[in-house]
Amino acid sequence: MHALQSATVTLAATGPTVDPQCLTVLAGACREQERVRFDYRAQDGKRSRREVEPHSLVNLGRRWYLVAFDCGREDWRTFRVDRIDRPRGALKRFTPRALPAADAATYVTSNLARAPQPYQARVVLHASAKAVVERHPWARDHVTAAGDDRCEYRSGDQALDWLAVRIGMLGYDFDVLEPPELIERFGALARRFDAATRKASRS
After folding, report:
1. CA angle at residue 15 from 11 to 19, to 5 degrees?
2. Which residues touch 168 (CB under 8 Å, ≥6 apart)?
3. Average pLDDT over residues 20-25
4. Going by CATH, does the domain composed of 119-202 fall within 3.30.70?
């Protein structure tokens, strides 16, 4: 547990959705600065074997990510932990390398922003870009100033529900610019939340 805590960066805590044993092995390797080997399944289903120098675990909402230097590719990579199989120590210690970002959370969110996602959202937040970044440092690359009290926020995801919830969790009023499906999803969620509120008020 201490290894997991020391190696983890949390962005939005809704809990892990992966095998706790896998997280424990990876966290221990991060803490002990030991190379780790595992089988990895890419988004297209292609499988490969990796040996990496683990840096940090990042919890981004419903998913966990491993930030590590891939020894075979000789470059930094972000791995979704739910796609990692059979992680095990390689019995090789390493000297930590400098991460090519301010921190692990920034590295992960920047990579995710560049990755192709089926749903891309653009919304106008009723807050300045400075205020949003101060409250959510990880969102620095996602916001663009649009006035003293407005900014544009862009984000993508494979699921509309999670995209809608993430925008709502920013904590600001907003206007949806695109896509139209996102507006419909907000409407469905609003009706669901309203129904739950009315039931609770009657109990």
Report:
1. 115
2. 189
3. 91
4. yes
